[in-house]
């Protein structure tokens, strides 16, 4: 026992030290999750009779969800959104920026980093307003630049617009993370690669990647989870047209607030939570296998 | 591992014990704080200065609050009134109000759409005025001034829950300038759906003009049902709720969806506009810019949208450029009760939050807000069909559009059933039109509607199909 107590605190004091943190986690994380599960097995509603006297319906909500074409649609769109904008979009663009900026002049580097960061730190509402202005059908900047106004990008290409939007929005994090990860690659190895005549791609693949694999996994995990739970697309398309960009968080919102079905929405939230846990577990497994 | 399971089980058990709180409500004494000398009241409404329903917001801020405060002060009561006014889409406002009712921070007097009353009443979020305030409510002299059909907006299962603000009627608004260009008369009055379609075909020849704005899709929410589907359905002779059942995927619903198919698959309307997140606001702007030929709307459009001074999409030449016509039945005499023309009406009501700290004072304020004096102050120099007949008699004559609604449209009109299931039916109807806009045929949309409706309200509640 004594050998495991490396800090020399003793059990009592150790418990005292972690208990505030555990309490916070309990109150703000574990309890709401359990509460959500509970609401998920009822028919609790925003208005109407079951808002006063909700009854327990067991797993009905979950069974209904699995049979609900709109839920399947939302799940699929979430997968597309995460793969397109996070796993591929933000990852690749973030790495490319970090890689290219490595050798750039400090002034240029600061400017580019500043701009990329700006898209990340601006409030969602401001950003959504700007993007609507860009993609608008009648007076949109994009239409004007292309010289062909009249395309309602958010209606005709909702998911593509959202994937590009979210790539733009979230790349800063990947760029910074890869920026610091690249600093950990020993310059001597890059030097060696250059002397033996390795191409840029070969260098990245055989010299850089082995060093930053852990960072890639961590980064992908974080941005995937953030993207899967992101609500900002609602401000651009509100899930429309006709559910074509209704990712899970938006679907949950629509069910809970617009349709008033709090029980059903809670059940879907639990399913989203499970998806998050599965994704997280998968990444952790990969990380562990690496080490 | 074992310990984890025990902890989980304990937590679940704890949650179940706490869960008694879900949706619970307490009864309260209607006479509470009746003699208070310091009173705070909040009025919640979907109106904001510089935005939606600006006139209503100004009236509350600049007239109701100062006047009522002054009069109470004379009685030795110190009243503070706050206006919790927002200017958002109706669906968002409804969500806000529903969430407010679930907390203790909601307004004391809350403006809601009459059609939401059923849900809120069944959920106990709103209670009969008699229970909240007391029996003196029935003694208010204002009730005599409110026509029964309008008063019914604030009633559920035969009991009074709120005081209506007035009512409206739906017509086809059209742009006379575009009509002239297309060779259509300025006093246009179609007598069948076919005449609307043929006018739309003529307007189609004008470049950059959307011939007909018939609200469709889920983004427009209730505006789709109220301004599109239901007036058309009334024109087939059917009502959405009849003999204890909801209208399923019947021939009449199919006929309505056929019109949508004609309009949106036939290039007579703009399908993209219906799918945009802010499509309804955009359609108003386009109309004001002379880019929409015909548009089905309530007189709200005339009063609050294209009004030259206070509208959200001002039209300087409204009085000469905007025409209106009654909505015809499918063919002459095919409407509900054999009518040639049809319309739909609704209206907002004001209710008292059962959780108010000051039920007596809230009722006093509500009475005050519905007095003839206050109602006239609300209108200023504009016109509107208010809840009070004495006020209407004075104000409507000055406005040709609103006197048209009062004289020609209200006698034909129908109201929606104020039932808790109505919003689900409305959503299913919106989805059916959304399917057509997105490319489905009327037949597919009808089948989809039938299926969605059965799922939403139960097979025994659905007729036809």
UniProtKB/TrEMBL annotation, chain A:
**Where does this protein reside within or beyond the cell?**
Cell membrane
Main location, first listed in the record:
membrane
Topology in the membrane?
A: Multi-pass membrane protein
Stretches that traverse the bilayer: 21-41, 74-100, 112-132, 152-168, 262-286
Task: Please indicate if the UniProt record lists Transcription regulation as a keyword.
Answer: no
Q: Which InterPro entries match?
A: MetI-like, MetI-like_sf
Q: Which domain of life is it from?
A: Bacteria
Offer one Pfam family short name for this entry: BPD_transp_1
Cleavable signal peptide? none
Q: Which GO terms describe its cellular component?
A: plasma membrane
UniProt entry keywords in alphabetical sequence: Cell membrane, Membrane, Transmembrane, Transmembrane helix, Transport
Chain ranges of the ABC transmembrane type-1 domain = 76-283
Which family does the UniProt entry place this protein in?
A: Belongs to the binding-protein-dependent transport system permease family.
User: What name does the UniProt record give this protein?
Assistant: ABC transporter permease
Q: What is the scientific name of the source organism?
A: Actinophytocola xanthii
Q: What is the lineage of its organism?
A: Bacteria, Bacillati, Actinomycetota, Actinomycetes, Pseudonocardiales
């Amino acid at each position: 026992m004594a050998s495991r107590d490396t800090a020399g605190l003793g059990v009592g004091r150790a418990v005292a030290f972690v208990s505030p943190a555990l309490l916070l986690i309990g109150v703000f994380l574990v309890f709401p999750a359990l509460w959500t599960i509970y609401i998920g097995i009822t028919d609790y509603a925003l208005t109407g009779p079951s808002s006063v006297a909700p009854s327990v319906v067991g797993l009905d909500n979950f069974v209904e969800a699995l049979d609900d074409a709109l839920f399947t649609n939302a799940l699929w769109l979430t997968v597309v959104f995460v793969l397109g904008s996070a796993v591929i979009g933000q990852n690749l663009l973030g790495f490319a920026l970090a890689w290219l900026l490595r050798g750039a002049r400090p002034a240029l580097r600061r400017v580019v980093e500043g701009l990329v960061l700006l898209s990340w730190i601006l409030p969602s509402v401001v950003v959504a307003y700007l993007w609507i202005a860009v993609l608008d059908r009648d007076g949109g900047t994009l239409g004007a630049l292309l010289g062909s106004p009249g395309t309602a990008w958010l209606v005709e290409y909702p998911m593509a617009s959202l994937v590009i939007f979210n790539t733009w929005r979230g790349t800063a994090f990947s760029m910074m993370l890869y920026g610091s990860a690249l600093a950990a690659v020993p310059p001597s190895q890059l030097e060696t690669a250059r002397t033996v005549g390795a191409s840029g791609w070969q260098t990245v693949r055989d010299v850089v990647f082995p060093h930053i694999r852990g960072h890639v996994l961590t980064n992908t995990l974080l941005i995937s989870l953030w993207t899967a739970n992101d609500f900002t697309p609602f401000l651009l398309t509100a899930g429309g047209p006709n559910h074509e960009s209704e990712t899970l968080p938006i679907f949950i919102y629509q069910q809970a607030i617009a349709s008033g079905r709090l029980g059903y929405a809670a059940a879907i939230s639990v399913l989203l939570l499970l998806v998050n846990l599965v994704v997280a577990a998968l990444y952790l497994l990969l990380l562990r296998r690496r080490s | 591992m074992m310990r984890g399971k025990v902890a989980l089980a304990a937590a679940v058990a704890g949650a179940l014990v706490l869960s008694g709180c879900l949706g619970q409500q307490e009864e309260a004494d209607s006479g509470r704080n009746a003699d208070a000398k310091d009173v705070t009241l909040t009025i919640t409404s979907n109106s904001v200065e510089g935005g939606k329903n600006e006139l209503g917001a100004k009236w509350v801020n600049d007239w109701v609050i100062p006047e009522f405060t002054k009069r109470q002060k004379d009685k030795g009561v110190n009243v503070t009134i706050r206006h919790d006014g927002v200017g958002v889409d109706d669906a968002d406002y409804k969500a806000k109000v529903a969430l407010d009712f679930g907390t203790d921070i909601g307004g004391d007097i809350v403006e809601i759409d009459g059609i939401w009353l059923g849900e809120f009443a069944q959920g106990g979020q709103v209670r009969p005025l008699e229970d909240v305030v007391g029996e003196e409510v029935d003694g208010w002299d204002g009730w005599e001034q409110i026509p029964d059909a309008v008063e019914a907006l604030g009633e559920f299962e035969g009991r009074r829950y709120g005081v209506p603000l007035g009512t409206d009627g739906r017509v086809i608004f059209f742009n006379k300038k575009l009509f002239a260009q297309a060779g259509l008369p300025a006093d246009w009055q179609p007598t069948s759906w076919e005449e609307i379609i043929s006018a739309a075909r003529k307007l189609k020849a004008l470049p950059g003009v959307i011939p007909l704005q018939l609200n469709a899709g889920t983004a427009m929410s209730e505006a789709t049902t109220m301004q599109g589907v239901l007036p058309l359905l009334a024109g087939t002779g059917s009502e959405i709720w009849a003999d204890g059942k909801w209208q399923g995927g019947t021939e009449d619903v199919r006929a309505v969806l056929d019109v949508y198919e004609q309009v949106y698959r036939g290039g007579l309307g703009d399908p993209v506009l219906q799918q945009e997140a802010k499509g309804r606001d955009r359609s108003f702007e386009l109309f004001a810019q002379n880019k929409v030929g015909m548009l089905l709307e309530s007189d709200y459009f005339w009063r609050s949208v294209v009004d030259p001074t206070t509208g959200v999409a001002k039209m300087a030449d409204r009085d000469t450029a905007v025409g209106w016509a009654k909505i015809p039945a499918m063919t002459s005499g095919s409407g509900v009760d054999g009518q040639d023309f049809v319309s739909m009406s609704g209206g907002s009501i004001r209710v008292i939050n059962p959780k108010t700290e000051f039920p007596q004072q809230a009722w006093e304020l509500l009475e005050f807000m519905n007095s003839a004096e206050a109602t006239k102050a609300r209108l200023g120099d504009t016109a509107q069909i208010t809840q009070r007949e004495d006020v209407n008699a004075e104000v409507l004559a000055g406005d040709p559009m609103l006197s048209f609604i009062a004289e020609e449209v209200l006698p034909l009109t129908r109201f929606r059933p104020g039932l808790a299931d109505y919003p689900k039916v409305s959503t299913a109807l919106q989805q059916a039109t959304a399917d057509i806009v997105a490319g489905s045929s009327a037949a597919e949309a009808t089948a989809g509607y039938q299926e969605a409706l059965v799922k939403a309200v139960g097979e025994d509640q659905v007729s036809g199909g």
